[in-house]
Amino acid sequence: MSDRERADAVLEHVAVLAFLYYPGIEVDDPSYSLTDDIDWCLARLGEVSDVARERMRALFARAITDPTATREELFTALVELDGLLAVDHHE
């Protein structure tokens, strides 16, 4: 799986979970677990450092529960993680 495919797969997983999430889901569905949802997304990352994994865990949690506030930060973190974009400092 290429870096781009991996990032796309992670974003797709997070988007689906964010779409399904709502405050109070734990009350309505006692079997629901945000931790399980985060783990499902982490599985798509593959081999990353423990530091990166913990950073992404926190971003996934925020992106699932508040996607509008977190989507840019998550995308940027995935780009940095996979080196998808070459930084060009031309002005």
UniProtKB/TrEMBL annotation:
This is Uncharacterized protein. It comes from Microbacterium memoriense.
